[in-house]
Amino acid sequence: MTDQINPRRCAKRKFKLRSSLFAGVCLFAFAAALTLSGLHSPARTVAVYYNGLCQPAEVTATDVEGMLEQAGIEAAAGEYDYEQTEEGEVLRVSPLFTLTVRADGETKTLTARTNTVQSALDSLGVTVGRRDLVTPAVDTIYNENCDIVVQRVRFTRDTVTEPVAYGVTYEETASLPKGQTRVKTAGANGSQTVVYNEKWVDGERVERTALSATLAVAPKDEVVLRGTKVYPKGEAVTTDEALNEKLVSPLCPDQPIAVDDDGRPLSYRRQINGIATAYTASEGGLTSTGPLAQLGYIAVDPSEIPYGTMMYIKTADGSYYYGYAKAADTGGFISGPVTVDLYFSSEAECRQFGVRDVEIYIL
Q1: How far apart are CA 301 and CA 309, in angstroms?
Q2: How many Å apart are CA 115 and CA 137, to the nearest integer?
């Protein structure tokens, strides 16, 4: 028996097949739309912070590397952070820098992104006291390789005893020639206690300031006698009356020569230390410059001591004070080690003087 085909059942079957095919096409189209939408995301604004400065960028990429490329920024791994905030997307980019920190005799290095000097010190465990010096300053934001120097600063107090210099007071006296002085009472330094505030940087003292000074022993002023006596012209050779009695030469300057306690002039143009011999001449003998040979007129080498030069002469040991003399003669004895030949009145005096070391003061 042949089966009979029901036209109504076939129609229902065809409808089911068509419905399934339509649903598959729709799903495929929807998936393709999703895929296409992922490839062509809409542009959006991302806040890009580069070295602390905000640079808004229009991007379509959804990955950070793509965003950086579209923003035109090159950055290596570890040099950026991405964050989704309520205000929007934020991309922070900061290059890595090498920091060198020198402190307490040690050198430490750190690789870090832009931040303050203080953050670098904190990262390395370097503490800074309130008086310490940091270069650059701790609030400096570095944006390049940087050398950071920490100098330790401390203050100390030092108490010392220091001398206080004595002063000088003068008393006028007619017992001394004008222009001559003599110490009447010696001075004595005093002392004071001084407190200093000292600043030290890395163990080296760089500043010392006196905070207070307390007088412990008062100084004692020196008292100096200052002469006022004026001699008549040509009355005295030196300001030492006792010394004047010892002088060989009778020549006398217009004003007395001020001398010290050892009979040395206090003021002169030049000093010559040399050797002196002695000579005399027969009555009426003349010097090479013309005048009669006499006490006070001495022989010299005129190329060393010109004729007419006035001088004061004494022996180095103080045994003879020839006194005020004039370069007026020369002779064969003025050669070699001999500097001057002193005139005496007799051969006996010449033999007594002999050869001696002398001090010649050119006046």
Answers
A1: 11
A2: 13
192, 227, 198, 241: which is closest to 212 by C-alpha?
192
What does residue 88 show for φ and ψ, rounded to 5 degrees?
A: 140, -165
b/e sequence 12-34, b meaning 16+ C-beta within 10 Å? eeeeeeeeeeeeeeeeeeeeeee
Are the beta carbons of 312 and 239 closer than 8 angstroms? no
State the pairing for strand pair 133-135/146-151. antiparallel
Strands 190-201 and 204-217: antiparallel
Supply the pTM of this predicted model: 0.47
For 11-40, what is each residue's pLDDT tens digit?
Answer: 344 434 344 444 444 344 444 444 444 445
pLDDT band at 233 (very low <50, low <70, confident <90, very high): low
Backbone phi, psi, residue 256, to 5°:
-60, 145
Instruction: End-to-end CA distance of the chain: give it in Å, rounded.
Output: 174
CA atoms of 294 and 283, how far apart (whole Å): 10
DSSP structure class, residue 158: E
CB 279 within 8 A of CB 328: no
Please tell me the distance from the alpha carbon of residue 321 to that of residue 312, in angstroms, as a whole number: 9
What domains does the chain contain, in order, with CATH numbers? 44-93 (no CATH), 96-151 (3.10.20), 158-199+214-227 (2.20.230.10), 232-362 (2.40.40.10)
Count CB atoms within 10 A of the CB of residue 327: 23
Q: Where is 162: in which H helix or E strand?
A: strand 153-164
Written as one string, the DSSP assignment of 177-191 is ETT-EEEEE--B-EE
Confidence of residue 333 (pLDDT cuts 50, 70, 90): low
pLDDT by residue (tens digit) across 275-329? 999 999 988 899 999 999 999 999 999 999 999 999 999 999 999 999 999 999 9
Phi, psi of 23 (to 5 degrees): -65, -40
Spatial separation of the C-alpha atoms in residues 286 and 28, rounded to whole Å: 150
